[in-house]
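Replying to the earlier thread about multi-chain prediction with a worked example.

Input:
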Amino acid sequence: MDYKKLYSHVVSRAKASAIRELLKVTAMPEIISFAGGLPAPELFPTKDVADILQTIMKQTPQEALQYGTTEGQKSLKTQLIKMLQETEHITVEPENILMVSASQQALDMSARMFINAGDAILVARPTYLGALQAFQVAGADIIGVESDKDGMIPADVEKKLAALQTEGRPCKFIYVVPDFQNPTGTTISEERRVQILELAKKYGTFILEDSPYRQVRFEGKHLPTFYELDGGAGHVLTLFTFSKVFVPGFRLGFIVGPKDVIARFVILKQAMDLCTSPFLQLATAEYLRRGLLAQHIKEIIECYREKRDLMLETLKKYMPQGVTWTHPEGGLFLWLTLPKHLNSSELLTKAIANKVAFVAGVDFYPECNVFNDMRLNFSYSSKEQIVEGLKRLAQTIKENL
Amino acid sequence: MDYKKLYSHVVSRAKASAIRELLKVTAMPEIISFAGGLPAPELFPTKDVADILQTIMKQTPQEALQYGTTEGQKSLKTQLIKMLQETEHITVEPENILMVSASQQALDMSARMFINAGDAILVARPTYLGALQAFQVAGADIIGVESDKDGMIPADVEKKLAALQTEGRPCKFIYVVPDFQNPTGTTISEERRVQILELAKKYGTFILEDSPYRQVRFEGKHLPTFYELDGGAGHVLTLFTFSKVFVPGFRLGFIVGPKDVIARFVILKQAMDLCTSPFLQLATAEYLRRGLLAQHIKEIIECYREKRDLMLETLKKYMPQGVTWTHPEGGLFLWLTLPKHLNSSELLTKAIANKVAFVAGVDFYPECNVFNDMRLNFSYSSKEQIVEGLKRLAQTIKENL
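Result:
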């Protein structure tokens, strides 16, 4: 049976991720991989989780195991409202929040809610690959905005928005990862956040703010979210996830936005999967209720900071002249740039032969037109692996200079 | 900020479910509701689940709490392959299976994979509302096929397929709920299954088989799935879920189909939510590994059979002449038909005033053009509620004859 003639346009737009294919190769135990984006599993709060699960099964088993509401469990929203108020100075009500199956689902839903095939959106060059995939599936015309060590450059945002206006095309949204962006590790400065938000207002579009790493800040000033800067005036939808600060295996995140937009998201989500697991929502609510998250985030920060420091030191020690890298103030990744004549995708084959892996940067550019970057993850590998892996990587680069 | 000009076509296609709105009203404790579709929570195997969760947290906490593969956890697939072999005479390999967040996600994914706006599909009249919603979001031209007490009528399937062929339009798939269908409780006879499958082959389309209730059979012969009848030749995609036979709160289901189609689904799912919770997959795998499912299903069958019997008896006792209903051999629902001149949506307002609720049948018809049916759920209410609720319903009908 040939399904090809029955497939929709979505199938031709959904491309197998090169990274995903790569991860299979790099899963071999002899390879030191900086390719993935996994949290350090040794930090998972397994004892607390085990205890919480028992509490849920004792106290509210029937609620936990039954269907939940599409909007999300009330007890979790109560905790989130408290958390947003205390840590983000964001004041919201339950109707401003939709629980989702982690932020990838929020990205897919955002794409479906706003993008018709051919519609324009703005993203940073480079940006998170998973977001690009979700936007591509919807058929978006993804317009890259130049960025530097302070993130997206407002002048280029305005240039692109003005060009669209001249063409009579709306920009459906501006996608940003303001803090310790995946893949570069860079943070959008406060000044730029204000400027980009003003541009969104001026050109009648909104900010889609993706904040998975935000709470994992090692140093520097905690900057306000776009949502806070907007004062809840409705120009920002913000996506949070528990994947990086609690556990990814629970697949739990949430969208914060204007009530009328959230109500639309609820209707879409009902058709998509009815609801996100109430069991995992109640477990996460209990984790928050016990006040365990703040201490756990401290442990994550301490561990990842040490790993980042070690990675920065080791890079400095071994990398040849002409190689540069970012200095992220938080998160899980840094971004390494090779001399222009080197192609990181070609280098990767040689690196794997030398038993070290990374992600080539090209796929993070919507236009796939920059070839000499790579993303390095520092959260997953052990310290020994970081040193040994970077030695191998430096050696590989030197051999190919 | 006005989002209306930024929304995609999806937003206008995604309609708030009348049922969902209704469920809020009928959640009031004084109302006896036959409206929902919830499993009986008192049957949830809470003790076993609590025990299994502890085992998972002892044995494989890091795998459970980390990101999983998009395809699904190997240990669960191993159990599913065994289960499919033993209970369904279906032989598959891991690459024939994709784990999803329950069957609503599978329906949404199927819609996205196959339907471009305006594409035709066939469904039974009436059919599952959640499927209609998923297909509507994709912009499907949903063509209703007449059905009777033996399910979809093959002659009408052929008539509709032939008409599409004449128009030069493909039928993207034929959606069926073969066993104890939601909403009618009817089962497609084996003869018709064979005929409908042959028609799919003849007209170059496939069967999308949705089997959430299949294992909950009270009586009669266990019929082969379309998948089994096809002998794995690739003309059938089958959707299973644990929502009705284990717990809905885990949001876990799976798609079985040809490897090349499953591989496409995997790519789409990666863009949609990366993976379904590995934690809940491992817990379910352990439940299956311990061999607990078969006994649990027996308990569900026994309980729901008694409730169905009671509902049938009580209907017979109290319903006025001219009211008819189906006699489902399994599942959670039966379908009641009023005399033609009565409108069940109008009756519902009066029923709620009399403190009993049901779902009006009109929304289960893709054309929304039949007004005198209602769906009654017998799994959720207690026996006392069934008797008292049906008395109230019969009284309401009599008052409006």
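Chain B touches chain A through 83 residues (CB under 8 Å).

Feel free to reuse this layout for your own posts.
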